[in-house]
Amino acid sequence: MKGQSLKAAKVQFMKIAVYLADQNPHRDRTLGITNYTRCLLSGLLQRTDIYLSTLVSASSFSLVNNTVEETRLPWRTDNPFFRLLTDNLSAPILDSMKPDVVYYPKGYVSYIMRPRCPVVGTVHDTILQYYADHYPHARSPIDLVYWIGLMKSSIRKFDMILADSCSTRDQILEFCRRYRIAPPPIRVTYAASDYEDVQIRQNVKKDYILHFASLSPHKNTKALMEVWSHVSQERPSWPQLKLIGSTSAVAEFLEYPGVSHIPFIENHEFSAIIEQARAILIPSAIEGFGLPALEGYYHGTPVCFLRGTSVEEILCPFTAKGGFLLDDPQSFKQALDQVLGMSFEEVVKIRDGLRAKFSKNNFVEAVAGALCDAGSKTGMVR
Asked: I need a labelling partner for 138 at 20 to 30 A (CA). Which of 45, 217, 244, 363 fits?
């Protein structure tokens, strides 16, 4: 295990055990949760009142940091059998790490048991219930039953839930009402991005806009492209639309006028592609926070987004521009015209407001406060 010398050097701290064995970013649907986790834990590591220990597998995400006490399981969890086995038998291993509180960044606890100390989890959304209600054929019935059941079980086991936004909090409360679950305390701890310190530059834009295409129905790629095919003909001066995503996710749209495809990009290319775009289109129907919107403005790129979502909650205190409805093509045309007409100074002002409210420091402070409040109930501050 790592970090023994650091442990000896600390006098008073809350020991937080973090379950990471359920995050396999090379195969997960939820890469955003790993980015969320990396940003959060890197901030928590800077604090002297918190000591982190992590439980990881041979395949899962882990922190590259010698100050973390890491327990590494010798097997992989990027296959269903060992993932389920590890999820459901991890509580005794976490207990053996002697934490004051156990934190689940992905928001799921074992069906079978929970650790003995206080348990906190970030529930990012109730998207599985959304699929069951709107797209039941997009996931297998067994998949939906298992994961919705696990969400119900996890909520009952949590001593506290962290929500990415007020929108997420409301989703959780509605889920609890639906299944007659008494929810634990829920705290809204807005997320942040490691891109907050990007220095945006003027006159770097190229003549394209971006959409992160997806086969997932809630991402609304198909619906967006139907709107695009209708209204783009009325706006021949609009930039080219570039789709980022797998070939299978974009193939049927590449014959549309003014549409091209950017294949898979490495992380180091991500910033440049976003910074050079004129706008980003985010038509997703349900998000926990909507990190791509924040990342867009941090790179000096405005965003078009679906109204009534957490993205609107995040952006609208700073700008009302860019909101549209998918069933109203004229609202999309107006929204894109608005953001394409933004000046550099206007984008910088919005960026500065977002960076002040959703800073990494604010994010880490909020989560650290929640974890310490949950752990302090045991009276085990070391």
From this structure: 244
